[in-house]
Amino acid sequence: MRKQRKLANKQHPDAYTIARKRQGSVGVSLCVFLFTWILATLLIGELISMFVPKGVLTPSLSSFVSSDVAQYLIALPLAMLVLRRTPAVETRKFTMSLRQFGGFFAVSVPIMYAGSYIGLVASALISGGKAENRIADIVAGGNVWETLLFVVFLAPVVEEWLFRKQIIDRLRVYGEKRAIVFSALAFALFHMNMFQFFYAFGLGLVFGYMYVRTSQLRYSVFLHMIVNFQGSVIAMWISNNMMDSNGDLIKVENLNTQEIADLAPGFMFIGLYAMFMIVMFVFGIVLLARRKRYLEFYDSPLEIRGTAGTKALYGTVGVMGFLIASVLLNLLMLFV
239-275: per-residue pLDDT in tens? Predict the structure, then answer.
């Protein structure tokens, strides 16, 4: 690897400048994506309210359509025009065993719960307890088919394609760890939701590592789908069927015999699901504690080590602009 880096430096006397320019272009593309998405979403929302009769689209479906059309059909193609300036690196593909995939799922469980709790506390502290989880409200207000289409299927496919394949393939040549961390950070910030930021960042690290070690999207996409299914469809089902109007679990002692019989399968499912998640939580904690035994990272051909490498990425105008704008927008969303 050292010989490869020396050869690269001979071929590109100003390798550091080239690295900054290319990585900065990634930041610029994310800025284009971010601002185009926001503006297009607002415009499409106005067009829907002006031309689509009331009652045709539910509020949740209207939100999904305006946001996803803006992202996938407008913002993403424009961002890719900029992102293509930075060449992607072709890498060898590897497979992942079911056992390995199960390990990554287990690791994702404590990350989800810990990240959700941190996000909840941080949002409450920053907003003085006034912030509301808008995304959760939108999902809760929709039906299961909307959620399956937009949250469980479309979002994981597009997000993994952008944040893992397109970004990591362009940054990994300058360092695997740095590429994984940046893709996870961008992924978390693009949620525009402080409630989701911390667990999205943690899961982004998991998805990024899965992609770097396999160079295949199917594994991270599938795990992403499972996570979204748990957090949306299963959560909606529990809320709609097992909770009262106050959001508390239904008290069996207040029900008659027939009502208890009707709810029995649901309570059985919740019990089994809870036990499964507890086992996965404990197993995930063990794997995280022993992560040094399992994680592997390799030197990249043009890797810039130390603070110079960090500055070559985070010190560029494009990346700094994206980070500042997205952080401010995440904070702003707590108050709107």
Answer: 777 766 666 666 656 666 666 666 667 778 888 899 9
Q: What is the C-alpha separation between 123 and 120, in angstroms, rounded? A: 5
Nearest Cα to Cα of residue 287 among 115, 112, 105, 103: 103
Tokens 């992607």 locate to: 88
CA distances from 225 to 154, 183, 327 (A): 9, 18, 26
Two structure tokens written together for 89: 């690196």
CB 294 within 8 A of CB 2: no
pLDDT at 131 over 80: yes
Domains: count for the chain = 1
* Residue pair 306/13 in contact by the 8 Å Cβ criterion: no
Tell me how far apart the alpha carbons of residues 203 and 101 are, in angstroms, rounded to a whole number.
14
Domain residues for the domain of 121 are 105-332
| DSSP H or E stretch at residue 81 | helix 76-83
Residue 133 pLDDT: 85
Q: Report if residue 274 sits inside a domain.
A: yes
Q: Taking a C-beta distance cutoff of 8 angstroms, is the pair 203, 242 a contact?
A: no
Concatenated DSSP letters of 192-258? --HHHHHHHHHHHHHHHHHHHHH--HHHHHHHHHHHHHIIIIIHHHHHHHHB-TTSPBPPGGGS-HH
Would you say residue 324 lies in a domain?
yes
- Give me the count of residues in the chain: 336
**Assigned domain for 86 exists:** no
Cα 19 from Cα 313, distance rounded (Å):
8
pLDDT in tens, 137-172: 777 777 889 999 999 999 999 999 999 999 999 999
- Asked whether residue 81 is domain-assigned, the answer is no
pTM given for the model: 0.90
Closest CA to 201 of 121, 119, 137, 124: 119
CA–centroid distance for 252 within its chain: 37
